[in-house]
Amino acid sequence: MTLILAHRGYAAEYPENTMLAFKEAEKAGADGLELDVQMTRDGELVVIHDEKVDRTTDGTGLVKDYKLEDLRKLDARFKFQSLPKKEQIPTLAEVLEWLSGTGMVCNIELKNSIIPYEGMEEKVIKMVRDYDLSDRIIISSFNHYSIVQSYLLAPEIEIAPLLSEGLYMPWIYAQSIKAKGFHPHWRAAPDQIITASLESGIDVRPYTVNKEAELERLFKVNCTAVITDEPAKARRIRDKIKQA
């Protein structure tokens, strides 16, 4: 069965990468989450997509220039101002603690291809191990050096390279870096690439799949997972195909 991973949580209906978006994704029937990790000035791991806080909060500036306590004062409601209370930028620890009480899997994307956060891999791995979640986590990044480093530090935690463009025989590349899967942009994941990868024992989890026709196509080809802003819609389509 193709899993449904909620991209930054239930990002279509709630503020992305917040505890509210993650909890609502679970309620909507997602099998797992996809989230992004950056690092504060005092070395804390926080869940936010952009290097800057400007787009998703009422603050300005780079995450790396904030101390955690100041970052937590920001309102991450973003374009959902009608929500009754402000949302904080969560710490990775906060999310993993909540996650450990669910059955969900989680794709942690290391956001270190623009700012090379020193020691990020070690910190993420230590935290995943501390919460005993090694078998439910996939570490991905556009920084492939970083995920190889993660694999060397923790071969028991799955890694997956992110691919924004099509790659020739991506399953071969994944195998070469000891990844059990890869996460392509959905446009870089035609049926034949998915089928050949799965036949080679390599998982394929395309991002960010929101169009009904694309979700249908990926469910029908038995893709490993889809990463979507709309877990409820994906769930509805998956159920419909299963009953057909």
TrEMBL record:
<dbReference type="GO" id="GO:0006629">
    <property type="term" value="P:lipid metabolic process"/>
</dbReference>
<dbReference type="InterPro" id="IPR030395">
    <property type="entry name" value="GP_PDE_dom"/>
</dbReference>
<feature type="domain" description="GP-PDE">
    <location>
        <begin position="2"/>
        <end position="238"/>
    </location>
</feature>
<dbReference type="GO" id="GO:0008081">
    <property type="term" value="F:phosphoric diester hydrolase activity"/>
</dbReference>
<dbReference type="InterPro" id="IPR017946">
    <property type="entry name" value="PLC-like_Pdiesterase_TIM-brl"/>
</dbReference>
<protein>
    <submittedName>
        <fullName>Glycerophosphodiester phosphodiesterase</fullName>
    </submittedName>
</protein>
<dbReference type="Pfam" id="PF03009">
    <property type="entry name" value="GDPD"/>
</dbReference>
